[in-house]
Amino acid sequence: MDLRNTVLSMDEWTELIHRAETGEISEPLENVDHDNTSPYDAIFVGGGAGGRFGSAYLQARGGRQLVVDKWPFLGGSCPHQACVPHHLFSEAAREMDYMRWNADTLWFGEFDDKRASIRDLVELFKAGRNNPHAFMNWQSKEQLGMEYILNAEATVIDAHTVEVAGQRYTARNLVLATGARSYPPDIPGIELPGVYDFATLIEELDYEPSRCVIIGGSKIALEYGSFFQAAGCQTTIVSRSPLMRTHSLHHVDEDLRTYVVDGMRKRGMDILEGAHPIEVIGNGKVTGVRMRLADGTEQTIDTDFVFLGTGERPHSQPFVDALGVQVDDKGFIQVDSRMRTSVPGVYAIGDLIGAPMEMFKARKCGMTAARNIMGEPYEFDFSEYPDFLHTTYEVTWVGLTEAEARQRYDDVAVIQMPPKGIRDDELALPCSEGSMLYAFTRPELTGFQKAIYDSKTRRLLGAHHVGFGAKDAFQYLDHLIRKGITVDEMGEMNELFINPDHFIQLSRLRAGQHNLTDL
Amino acid sequence: MDLRNTVLSMDEWTELIHRAETGEISEPLENVDHDNTSPYDAIFVGGGAGGRFGSAYLQARGGRQLVVDKWPFLGGSCPHQACVPHHLFSEAAREMDYMRWNADTLWFGEFDDKRASIRDLVELFKAGRNNPHAFMNWQSKEQLGMEYILNAEATVIDAHTVEVAGQRYTARNLVLATGARSYPPDIPGIELPGVYDFATLIEELDYEPSRCVIIGGSKIALEYGSFFQAAGCQTTIVSRSPLMRTHSLHHVDEDLRTYVVDGMRKRGMDILEGAHPIEVIGNGKVTGVRMRLADGTEQTIDTDFVFLGTGERPHSQPFVDALGVQVDDKGFIQVDSRMRTSVPGVYAIGDLIGAPMEMFKARKCGMTAARNIMGEPYEFDFSEYPDFLHTTYEVTWVGLTEAEARQRYDDVAVIQMPPKGIRDDELALPCSEGSMLYAFTRPELTGFQKAIYDSKTRRLLGAHHVGFGAKDAFQYLDHLIRKGITVDEMGEMNELFINPDHFIQLSRLRAGQHNLTDL
């Protein structure tokens, strides 16, 4: 279907995507400038975050691109199965948690567990997800001027050629961007109905789970587990490593970790650290999980719902076969800091090249590939980045933990709330957006915040936050830490009181101090 | 009561403050170092935000200070009657609004208007406010090393002398910091029971209002009005100027204003712009407000509750009498950019010197006075600052509006969500923390965001946001705008997806573009 000369409205796009998803339209959705005879600078194989942002950047630099995706929309798995539903569920978890703690006080009624439904939320998401999809197609075409072919899988022929629906397209470069998907652990019974990952949860859940066992201790485990628990589904996390103390999460401050994990336990979750799943039990459908606990004993938990919070693997084999690109032992394509693979003219970006599987990385990988393709040498180092996860809180961190800072610097000043030596249940602080009501009903639920300074250079080394409303700020804090922001400069900023992170005013209470000390 | 050698716990402080408030303890609460024979560098008359932060900074620079407050706690009106209860009420308003829009869907039950009570929230706040008070006393003494006398009014004798409970204290400098209070408009009946301001609402409300008329169109009018309405109390705002288009609010973008004010109307508030109150009617208690509407006709609204959203005035007369400090026609003390009054050695800070009556200004005024007193020439220009207000949303802005930018720059690029030409009810974006559920139920409630760039220098000129979770970030955006952050630098930041403000990723979609255009 040639859409080149048609401007569709949101509703028309939504309808078109729906018809493609149901199979009513099986032909490709094409926005290709057939009159343009100049060669493509790059074809992006995969139109998720990396492919779309890479395409936009290439366009911005005056290049010509084509992006191809098997789905009938750009944006990839994030708005379809991953970050967007996760954020919807996390907002629901926060809200249900809030309504539970405050049940039958003030204007809150009893919390009705029977109304809280995982499946309802999944259905709500599915009913609405094509609207953001529609927007991304619209924006990419009308605002960003991208060329794309959707609803059609690209087959890579060689380093300059891609075949889509029987047509061949050539380009100076290829950018591989097909992402990763859940990789089920090798446990008997893992294929049973009733075992879900974040993607199949969206596509296939057809009953209301009454009991949940999560296998794995990744971010996803904490995030989805908090949602299931908040929705009244008793949840057990079975994790080999202590939560938030895994290789995949860096710079997790121990005080922050304690606040978060204690908070999950406080909400009734069972967290089995050092436990190994042995078998998923069932007879045509999951009925339980057998595991070995940290103390060596075995235990079986009856459950009708198992959720995988283990890792993801890339779908790189077709590229290995067609191009011979070098991959690591898990199949992730190996690239340099310019996103160049081992094959000249072939780039790879996003989840396909490994951790961290975060949005900023995927998008900036795309931008990096685009810049290099357009002749600008540009390197992207994503070894350091701000990070976050959701439980029923926003949990955010950037820079060094207190322990890391003390290891690397002689003299460290820690500013935190509640201050060391004051229990969280005796102080209504931090009190700020999203935890104001808790400050007056349950002080221990108001969150935790910590900033770490090098006393000598007075520079901010790290910031850590559990609460609400500070996630957005940590993007900018990351930038400021890289620029070497000091406690004195923090103290001169203009806060918007009551600011969710109290870093500016707390820093000001120590700014100007000759020998910087804790607060 | 000499507390110099006593370390009180939070509970002990809370109890002590309570006993002082009820009059059981009438003597001053003293933390004064009587063994120290060095002179005071400054006495801060008033221990609110400015006095406390000024004291902390003076201490940090090695100076000796004394701070005196008539209340038995430091921190001033903010945690007692102003910003803290306002934030509690605004969080409640947001939550009630959320529960109303989602009533009887998903896990939400019917919203029970009968349970929603303004008075309950006031009582909840009053029952808990002494805990933050306790903390500020504790922190100021144990962590910051301040000297203070609380529960005792300071009388200024001359430019170096203050009398407190019959004792005289001398210092090199005085810092006046006694704030401002509501200034009722000159309307017949304004003194009737049933007319409240933000302070008397806390101290005196003894019934549940059923109908509200707000006189004035200040920030407070929008904030408290949104709360009253959310709590089921039908609210009318009577404002001479259009809301958010008053002298006291600068840099309000017209699109942001429209979204906010339309949102208030959508929630059932009556907003009468261009209306003048003529008389508060009542017979021993308020029964109505008579006003002249914009079209010249008169109208009377029956009501049992009138709330003042007009301005504030300082309590400066004692200082004029004792010192002869120069004041303006409203009584605000006049200072230069170092916070120096017309009387040598006498400084004034905070609300006492006029608008903006914001926390950042009060605190940084205190810091500025402290620096200058300690011999460091330091100027504080608060003519430009980030700003915010709450309705049932967080509304934040910094820098120039689109109209201002277009006036000052030849070529301006505007990046906004929803984009120009797309209606907010046809697009589920912005979808982000706090508005995820709305994205799937009521797209028109998801908020609004706009960033404005100078196309030539590529610098960020202004940012405007209606939603949730971006307030904290605007503190840092203000700093970055002052540093000249460009669209390309924004595009290289590491976003924490789904970030409440989408400025980083939207900027990245235009970063690198030779001729910067709208998005």
TrEMBL record, chains A, B:
PANTHER family: GLUTATHIONE REDUCTASE (NADPH), MERCURIC REDUCTASE
Alphabetical list of Pfam families matching this protein: Pyr_redox_2 (PF07992), Pyr_redox_dim (PF02852)
Sorted UniProt keywords: FAD, Flavoprotein, Plasmid, Pyruvate
Domain Pyridine nucleotide-disulphide oxidoreductase dimerisation residues, every copy: 386-500
Organism annotation: Mycolicibacterium chubuense (strain NBB4) (Mycobacterium chubuense)
Top-level taxon: Bacteria
InterPro entries in alphabetical order: FAD/NAD-bd_sf, FAD/NAD-binding_dom, FAD/NAD-linked_Rdtase_dimer_sf, Pyr_nucl-diS_OxRdtase_dimer
UniProt cross-references to SUPFAM superfamilies, sorted A to Z: FAD/NAD(P)-binding domain (SSF51905), FAD/NAD-linked reductases, dimerisation (C-terminal) domain (SSF55424)
Protein name stated in the entry: Pyruvate/2-oxoglutarate dehydrogenase complex, dihydrolipoamide dehydrogenase component
FAD/NAD(P)-binding domain ranges (all copies): 40-364
Signal peptide: none
Cofactor(s) essential for the protein: FAD
Any one GO MF annotation of this record: oxidoreductase activity
